[in-house]
Each structure stands twice: as structure tokens, then as C-alpha cells.
Amino acid sequence: MSLVETDDIEGGESLSLHQRILSDIREKILSGAWAPGHRIPFEHELTAQYNCSRMTVNKALSQLAKAGLIERRRRSGSFVRQPQSQAAVLELHDIRIEVEALGLPYRYERLGRVKRRSSAEDRALLGLSAPGQVLALESLHFAGERPFALEKRLINLSAVAEAGEEEFLDIAPGPWLIGRVPWSEAEHRIRAMAADDAIADALDIEASAPCLVVERRTWSAEHPVTHVRFIYPAESHTLVARFTPSQG
Amino acid sequence: MSLVETDDIEGGESLSLHQRILSDIREKILSGAWAPGHRIPFEHELTAQYNCSRMTVNKALSQLAKAGLIERRRRSGSFVRQPQSQAAVLELHDIRIEVEALGLPYRYERLGRVKRRSSAEDRALLGLSAPGQVLALESLHFAGERPFALEKRLINLSAVAEAGEEEFLDIAPGPWLIGRVPWSEAEHRIRAMAADDAIADALDIEASAPCLVVERRTWSAEHPVTHVRFIYPAESHTLVARFTPSQG
DNA sequence: CGTTTCAATATGTATATACATAATCGCCAT
DNA sequence: ATGGCGATTATGTATATACATATTGAAACG
Q1: Which CATH architecture has domain A89-242?
Q2: Which residues form the HTH gntR-type domain (chains A, B) (predicted)?
């Protein structure tokens, strides 16, 4: 039995050997041909089958291991792992891009801007322990005539002092921060909520109508940078997440 | 200027060289010391600084490139990328695990089970073009006494024939499918919705109360396998997604 | 019979080397 | 000037090799 013809007569697809080994093995696993627990051929066997060096095989297998598709055990070999905990990559677009993708004109409007000493709630949201200055912003993103999302944001001025000088009248805080502050970690919370009166008013929807709430906390090298809460009317928004295990 | 002392006197942390190069460069980028656009040292410079071979440096840089932190251009060098489109990894736990993590007893109850020829709507949800048999399931997941989530699922029997023989009285379709059908791709849609009467009744909440809806479509090697819609009462559920760029 | 020891084995990491490929720079001829 | 061409350069991919390390299985020993 051989995984491939060593002399590939047909599709000389200009795939690198590395890529070919990767996709061959992925295919075997995803098709179910190699069930979880199955021992995949030893490196030296693959070396022979693909007629290449062990380093090339090793790189491919290491990558599959890092992607979580296989598990490698010294002296024992490499094994197909149990189905992984399902995880999906959730792309969190810029709202402007999202709106424009819908073919609607985008408009941003700053509602409020307050610089203040952090309240206990501010600190809780940002994950701060010591008090300090924060900037609280409230703004609306429009798709055409209609409000698309309400944004409530806190910025930790100890981490991003320059934000204190910015009015955010013409630029939304999201794009402003991106590119200025490299972020090392982010956390999102997604939930449904009934609109309270203030939200309903801002978004021009009925009170207690369902909304999708996306909260994001961002850190840069351990320091909390910002906490933001996007509130979308239920109709206007669906988050899409896709997942393909271990691509390339 | 040198990234590290070539003879590391202090922390001989038993980190592999590969790991050390990776984390050094990541640190520079995430701390902002190397801003987006900055050209990071050429491979041969890093080779000299770390006193190692180019292959080792190359492997580290390739990994950073694959993680999206840097961009490599032939003849020009490697550059710190603009902040990536924000993406987060959303873990989609098994509901049983989620409930038990809350310290509540988990219970599953099948509400309905119908085997039928796929309707146009079924095909649209599953992404099928040709008609065929599908299994429609409706079930409830409980956390303690209270309904935690309502599940509405379609299974494509052309892809998973054995599902037609299963009653799903004692095992939820999710766990049943996992481990039986390897999935190669999944897509999620997350949105908020007002509970209609049927949903409100099943979940024991008020009509038009806000709910979080998570829809998932799963493929196995191009074939649609299942479409499932989880409906959570707003209070009971928050999805959490975390992201750290390019972990080693 | 149980334990220790040792050799065999598969993976982990690193090196030196080689050639391919793409992009850029500068030279040269038009 | 300007358009093309070749040399240069940095990365991309692969090889052969070497030694480290963890684990297993079997032999040796008390």
C-alpha cells in the first residue's frame, strides 16, 4: 500500500512536497479513512513513500500536530486525535466595512464623550485594579438612514494617553485605536438582550426588542486598553464564523 | 544592537532556540517596539545574532508569517504587518459540558423526531441541491430544572444513513454525530431573536423575550451533514471568544 | 518473581548545504 | 529620459546528517 505514486504522472500541480504530504494526510483523516486512534505511518515510512527526506516529512507532521489533527508520541509514532473541541474563527470586521459590504452608505456619529476618573464599574469592565483616568465614548454607526449599531466604549487613558486629546468627531474610536495600539489579546462576549428605553431610542427600535450585544476587551502586553460594547438590533446583524480544521 | 546575548548567562530556561526566536520577535512586535511596517532583521542577521543556522531562523519566521504577524517579501525582507483583521477563536462546547461547568445537573429530552423527504426549506438550510431523506429532530437541554437550550436539527441521511436508525432518546444528536462523522468544515451564524410562542413555551420564558440563536452547518468532505439551530434564553447564555495572535 | 538496566526506536531539534524563485537595483543601449 | 536585461539579493524548499530525548520492550539481575 502506498499513499501516492512516487512518480506522479498525472497532476503535477506544482504543489510543494510539503503541501502534498499535508493535504494527503488531512484528507485521510477528514474522510474518516484513518479513524481517531489510528497510527499514521512512521516518518521513515512516509520518507520512503514520498521519496523525500525525513525533515520534509517531519515538518509536515509537526504542522499537523500543531494544528491538533494528530498527536505525536516518541518511540510510539503519530496518531489521529479524537475529534477536537469544536472551535470556529469569528471574524470581527470593522463596522464601516460591514456596512459598505451591504452596499449601504456608512456614517458615524459621536453622541457623547466624557473624560473622568474611573468608577468602580469602569474598572470592572476594563479589568483594571488601580484607579485612573478613562475616556467614555458613546457613538452611533449608521447604514444609510438607519442606525446600525450603538457603541459604548471605555478607553484606559493610562495605556493610551493620546486618546485623551482626540475628539472622535470624525473618526470612530475603533479605527483610531487600531494601528495606534498593537493589541496582544482580546476577549469577546456575545449575548442577546432586550433593548432598554435608551437603547431603543438611540437605535430607533421598539423598547424591549431583541438586540445582539458584542462586548470586547482588549489588552496590549498585559495592560487593559479598551472595553467596547456594540449593540445591534436583531434584524440588522448576524455574526458569521467559519472553521476548517488545520488549513495549510 | 543585538536581540539577545549569544551566550545566555542568565535564564537557561531550556527553551529551544526556535521558541526563543519566536517569542523574542513576538514580544518586539506586540510591545510596539517594532511598529507595523518595520523591517525585521534579515535571516542572515538573525543567524548571526542568535548564532544559529539559517534554517532555524527561517522556520521561526515562516511560522510568524503563517500566524499573520509578519509579512515576508522576497528580495526585500520581512516586515511587521498592519494589525490583522480581528479574529477570535470561538469555542463551541458541548452543551452538556457547558451546563456541568455551571455546576448544574444536565438533562436531555427529545421532543420530536421525523424522517421525511427534504422540503425546499430543509435543502436550503442544509445547502443541498438534490432532494433526499432527512431526519428532523427537536430537543431540549436542561440545566437543573430549567430549560437551557432548544435544539432544532436536520441531519442529511444521504450523508449519515445510520442516523435514520437512531431514536436519539438517550443521546443528543450532537455527541452522537461527533466521533461518528468527521467534519471538515463548519459555519456558524449567531444572532439575536425574539422568542415566538412555540419557543417561549418550550423554554419556559415569556413570548418575545430576547434569545441568542446559534446556527451551525457542518460539512464532511464537501457533503452537507447537519444543520442545527440552538436557541438560548438571553439570560442563560453568553458566548465567549478569546484571541491571542500567533501563540507559539 | 519483581525490579533494574540497557539497547532499540521514533520523534525533536539543529546544522550545513544546495538550488529555485521572485523582486529589485543599476547598467546599458536605444 | 526610458525601456529592457542581467546581476544581486532575500526568501522558499529540500537534502543529508548529527545528536538529544523520551519511551518502550526485553534482557539481566537480585
Answers
A1: 3-Layer(aba) Sandwich (3.40)
A2: 15-83
Nucleotides of D under 7 A from a protein CB: 8-18, 21-24
CATH 1.10.10.10 fits B17-80, yes or no: yes
pLDDT tens-digit map of A186-220: 888 999 999 999 999 999 999 999 999 999 999 98
Distance of B247 CA from D21 C1′ (whole Å) = 24
Going by the DSSP 8-state scheme, the letter that residue A234 receives in this structure is: G
The DSSP string of B25-47 is HHHHHHHTSS-TTPEEPPHHHHH
Residue A108 forms beta bridges with which residues? A141
Share of chain A above pLDDT 70, in %: 92
Q: What is the residue extent of each domain of chain B? A: 17-80, 89-242
> What nucleotide is nearest B59 when CA is compared to C1'?
D12
Q: For residue B158, give the C-alpha cell.
A: 444521504
Yes or no, beta carbons of B238 and A191 under 8 Å apart: yes
The two domains A17-80 and A89-242 share their CATH topology (first three levels equal): no
If one compares A182 and B76, the residue with the highest pLDDT of the two is B76
Q: Answer positive or negative: Cα dihedral of A71, A75, A76, A78.
A: positive
Report ipTM (2 d.p.): 0.76
